[in-house]
Amino acid sequence: MLHSMSTTVESSPQRTADEVNEEIRALWRRSGGTLSVEQREEYQRLVLEWAAAAPQSAPAA
Q1: Residue 49, CB-side half-sphere exposure with 13 Å CA sphere
Q2: What are 5-45's pLDDT values in tens digits?
Q3: Whose CA is closest to 39, among 29, 54, 52?
Q4: How far apart are CA 8 and CA 13, in angstroms?
Q5: How large is the angle between the packed helices 37-53 and 17-31, nearest 10 degrees?
Q6: Angle of CA points 49, 51, 54, to nearest 5°
């Protein structure tokens, strides 16, 4: 029996900047203010995700 496979890519729902920001704050609370190497890597990933989710504003004239 032959099965067809879907060719659509399932993307994970994009989180809002506020949601990512809350995760960043939680990371800092858990760390006690000092990030380990692993936490620093997670922080960098979260900051990039936050920047992508943050609304872009036009530069002031």
Answers
A1: 19
A2: 545 544 456 899 999 999 999 999 999 999 999 999 999 99
A3: 29
A4: 15
A5: 160
A6: 110
1 touches 37 (CB < 8 A): no
Say if residues 40 and 3 touch (Cβ distance below 8 Å): no
Tokens (6 digits) for 1: 């029996």
Read off the pLDDT band of 56 (50, 70, 90): confident
Per-position DSSP letters for 1-61, written without gaps between them: -------S--PPPPPPHHHHHHHHHHHHHHHTT---HHHHHHHHHHHHHHHHHSPP-PPP-
Contacts of 4 (CB under 8 A, 6+ apart): none
